[in-house]
Amino acid sequence: MIDPRSLDDYRAHGGYKGLERALSLGPDAILDEVTTSGLRGRGGAGFPTGIKWKTVAQAKADRKFIVCNADEGDSGTFADRMIMEGDPFLVIEGMTTAGITVGATKGYIYIRSEYPHAVEAMNAAIKAARRGGYLGDRIGGSTHSFDMDVRVGAGAYVCGEETSLLESLEGRRGLVRAKPPLPAHHGLFGKPTVINNVLSFAAIPFILAEGAKAYADFGMGRSRGTMPIQLAGNIRHGGLFETAFGVTLGELVDDIGGGTFTGRPVRAVQVGGPLGAYFPRALFDTPFDYEAFAARDGLIGHGGIVVFDDSVDMRKQARFAMEFCAIESCGKCTPCRIGSTRGVETIEKIIRGERVSENLALVEDLCNTMKFGSLCALGGFTPYPVLSALKHFREDFVPAPTTLQAAE
User: Fold this and answer.
1) End-to-end CA, the chain
2) What is the predicted pLDDT for the residue at 401?
3) What is the pairing mode between strands 193-197 and 278-280?
4) pLDDT digit string, tens, across residues 263-315
5) Does 173 lie in the same domain as 229?
6) Domains held by the chain: number
7) What is the CATH number of the domain that holds 232?
8) What is the model's pLDDT at position 301?
9) What's the pLDDT score for residue 203?
10) How confident is the model at residue 44, as a pLDDT?
11) Exposed, middle or buried: residue 348 (CB in 10 Å: 0-12, 13-18, 19+)?
12) What is the mean pLDDT of residues 365-375?
């Protein structure tokens, strides 16, 4: 609808109304609005945004930072890219509001190197916002100051993890930090830092412009508002579909996505990126909700849905999850670094038919070690696709008995 480089276009469609109201409310009232809205981090963890902002606002420091995580590395996800390329001022407005709320004067948006058009669009929008008085000193004629810059990653999936991202921003190798201390207390350059995803910041202008209740009226349970859901894989109608939390997985895949592109039956759906669980059709009644997915050993993640038809080999999918973790691991902790490598080897033995029952037990043991012993979610979430494949598609891993064995 708009020229993403044009500040006038953005304002003509309601842009910066949220920031203008935020400036009139003041930091404490902004915090109340964000908290009341029920907004939770859209990057995958689902942590309440209001609590995170309040923690940083109450921290004592001579300087604070706002960091936007735009390192969208999950397979089948593209919502961040669509927003940054098509509506970059939305992200800038959300980050600026966060800065005013917590007392930060500088922000960074960390974009994956595979998104050159998003980098270009964000840089152009930042320059336009500065010219228009919406970045820099005395924002919108107020006493507040906030400016921001783009930083480009180098293709490391692990830098989507917030502490690894901070290490990269500081010019070091992307290694995960131990927590505590949390970034809200000791983040970028050791200062209190708000780190949110693109989708989280993009929700802020609506919440401030229309009010917390207008946002909270969407959704179900503790999952309030809307989510841009990305449909990908073997699906007839792939793309981006924004809707309120609560729609079922079956509605998303069958009604909105139109089933598989090949026309074959849907066998498995992976939700939440390459580290998300595989759900069979029997779980298609699951509402798109953080708690509902967690109750069934799944996760929403960044809202990506990848569809597979009945030709998929779930042994290979389980192997891929371990291989992905082995390749992308920062190597700092043993469960992730070694566990994923041993996982690939063990699943390959299962595929070859070697001591299947013993090796299946070993894979499950490895998964438990990775889930509870890894330093971050890369190693901690890798068990989700592996264990869900073992649980819901066991027939792919255990060879069918021969005629003679069945007779016995």
Assistant:
1) 69
2) 63
3) unpaired
4) 999 999 999 888 899 999 999 999 999 999 999 999 898 899 999 999 999 99
5) no
6) 3
7) 3.10.20.600
8) 87
9) 95
10) 74
11) middle
12) 92
Position of tokens 């689902």? 46
pTM (two decimals): 0.91
Question: What's residue 42's pLDDT?
Answer: 85
Q: Which of 309, 340, 368 is the last residue of a domain?
A: 309
On whether the CB atoms of residues 329 and 336 are closer than 8 A, the answer is yes
Give the Cα separation of 172 and 266 in Å (integer). Answer: 43
Q: Are 325 and 348 in contact (CB under 8 A)?
A: no
Q: Are residues 177 and 62 in the same domain?
A: yes
Distance CA 314, CA 5 (A): 45
Instruction: Residue 42: give the domain boundaries.
Output: 7-217
Question: If you search the block for the tokens 């967690």, which residue do you land on?
Answer: 294
Q: Which two tokens stand for residue 116?
A: 């050159």
Under 8 Å between Cβ of 100 and 22: yes
Is 162:183 a contact under the CB 8 Å cutoff? yes
Q: What phi and psi values does residue 47 have, to the nearest 5 degrees?
A: -75, 140
Of the residues 217, 248, 276, the one at which a domain ends: 217
Tokens of residue 74, six digits: 């999950």
Question: If you average pLDDT over residues 248-258, what whole number do you get?
Answer: 94
174 phi, psi to nearest 5 deg: -75, 80
The C-alpha atoms of residue 202 and residue 24 are separated, in whole angstroms, by: 20
Q: Are residues 83 and 160 in the same domain?
A: yes
Distance, CA of 368 to CA of 319 (rounded, Å): 16
- Position 405 scores a pLDDT of 53
Q: Is 236 a domain residue?
A: yes
Q: Which residues contact 52 (CB under 8 A, 6 or more apart)?
A: 41, 184, 194, 196
